[in-house]
Amino acid sequence: MDYQAKYITEDIKLSCYEDRFFKSDIMFEHHMLIWFISGETKIVQADATYIFKAGDIFLIPRNQLATIINYPKDGKPHKTVVMHLTTERLRDFYADRVMSTVASESKRIYTFSAHPLLESCLASLIPYFELEELPEDIASLKIREAVSILRVIDKDIDHVLANFKDPGKIDLADYMEKNFMFNLPLGKFSYLTGRSLTTFKRDFTRAFNVTPQRWLTRKRLELAHYQFVEKRKKPIEVCYEVGFENLSHFSYAFKKHFGYAPTKLIGQSVSE
Question: Distance between CA 35 and CA 37 in Å, rounded?
Answer without folding.
Answer: 6
